[in-house]
Amino acid sequence: QVCPFLSIMPLCTAEGPMTSTPCNLPGSSTETLATDVRGIPRPLSYLMPTSKRGQQLPGGKHLVFADDRVEHQTIGMECGAEGADSFVLAVDMFAQADAWLYPSEGEAETRSPVIALWKPSGIVTTMAEHIKNGLLPLVQGSAGSLGWPEGRLPQPVGRLDKRTTGLLLVTDNGDLTKILLARGSVPKTYVATVNKPDASDEQLRHLLAGVKIEEGRPAVALSAEVVGIEVSLRLWRGKEKRRPEVEEVEYTRYAKIRLRIAEGRKHVVRRMLAALELQVRELHREDFGGLSCRSLGLMGPGSYATVDAGKVLELLGVCGLGPAAPDLAGASSPCEEALLRRRGRAVYNALRCGRLMCRLRQGGCLDESEALKLKGWLDEHWTLEGPCLGAFRELCPSLNVQCSCENG
User: Fold this and answer.
1) Contact 319, 396 (CB under 8 A)
2) Interhelix angle for 309-318 vs 334-362, to 10°?
3) Dihedral of the alpha carbons of 211, 217, 223, 228, in degrees to the nearest 10
């Protein structure tokens, strides 16, 4: 069986990656590569500010193609000088929106679609305005400071519970979120401080073999180890009135356990450890798919940073590779980075095109002319054959991602 990571990767030589790659998509020529397909149609709502996405779309138009002209007002843009053209070319918007996919080409101003936050304890992972201790103020502040476009407020990729601290990604890209949240997509590393001074070898073996929690399949850790001890000191004043300066010191030791998991069920780390009689006192996520608070330059709770566009592609590139995925925080050679970025672009484009195929086959939200145009685009640039997500699953066979056709 050919490894899906290598099936679309150029071979690496001493001079760097080769420029051609033998990648066959179902029903398409070998020249049409998932990593290089461009001008992919996208929903009009993607180009609109968040505040306008719930409104009735003009003329029933739901998809935008590269050769379309879109009215400024529709997507919340200022028209500019009086008498200026009130339309913007979709191809220009695509170039700007997709510039992060080609960070080395400099075709347009590159804006990464991802912000990394160090979530503090006591913050609820929700963007709801009515939640007092929600994430909204932190996201608004970070997006504003980093020059994020107004009206495109990023949303969290997954959740951390109220007491958990550490790395949380936010993005305005729904396709990226769908890939990163797929079961088994990328491993995440947590450090848990528990109520015992140590964890036995047997408890660690149970974590690796799988722990039965309340529902569904056992929860399995990819790795588990004790990485330190936290010591708590408590001072007691002496009871003798004649010697009040005498103090008693009570030491309590709590073990720190680092777990690496590849799933995201609710409170899964806390429940895994509780099943082994290890109650979690503190929980910190230090790593998401190889990105860490340290590697991103996050200095403490409440800090934030833009995730470099190249690193976003590398993060997508490790999706579906499982425990064999390379460490993004480690020193990678330029060749390894190029391979991961190329694979990440292919994974992302394969999902986008697969979802367009699904939309065409369902047909409910497309008018006749739009459906014909989409069919023509897919026939020329992608494929009309096979399962909607066939190419995506060839790249990431272990990921549990379904299209609407399969959901009924």
Assistant:
1) yes
2) 70
3) -40
Q: What is the mean pLDDT of residues 97-118?
A: 80
Helix boundaries (H) for 255-333: 268-274, 309-318
CA distances from 195 to 178, 253, 272, 382 (A): 35, 8, 14, 55
Which span out of 90-104, 122-136, 392-406 was modeled with the highest average pLDDT?
122-136
In 3D, which of 320, 403, 402, 392 has the Cα closest to residue 35? 392
Query: Which structure tokens are listed for 87?
Result: 């339309």
Q: What is the pTM of this model?
A: 0.84
Single-letter residue type at 335: C
How far is residue 46 from each of residues 43, 50, 74, 94, 272, measured CA to CA in Å? 6, 9, 12, 11, 38
Distance (Å) of CA 147 to CA 49, 103, 104, 152, 306: 15, 18, 21, 11, 10
Strands (E), 96-199: 114-119, 155-156, 165-171, 188-194
Tokens of 66: 């590269």
Q: Is 267 exposed, middle or buried (0-12, 13-18, 19+ CB in 10 A)?
A: middle
DSSP β-ladder status, 280-288 and 165-171: parallel
| Residue 320: how many other CB atoms lie within 10 Å | 24
Q: Kindly state the greatest CA–CA separation across the chain.
A: 95
With 90 as the cut, is the pLDDT of residue 106 above it?
no
What pLDDT does 363 receive? Answer: 76
| C-alpha gyration radius of the chain | 25
Q: Residue 87's closest CA among 97, 67, 73?
A: 73
Q: Inform me whether the pLDDT recorded for 249 exceeds 60.
A: yes
User: If you search the block for the tokens 């799933």, which residue do you land on?
Assistant: 263
Question: Between β-strands 114-119 and 304-306, what pairing exists: parallel, antiparallel or unpaired?
Answer: antiparallel
Could you give the residue numbers annotated as active site?
A: 161
Residue 218: how many CA atoms within 13 Å on its side-chain side? 11
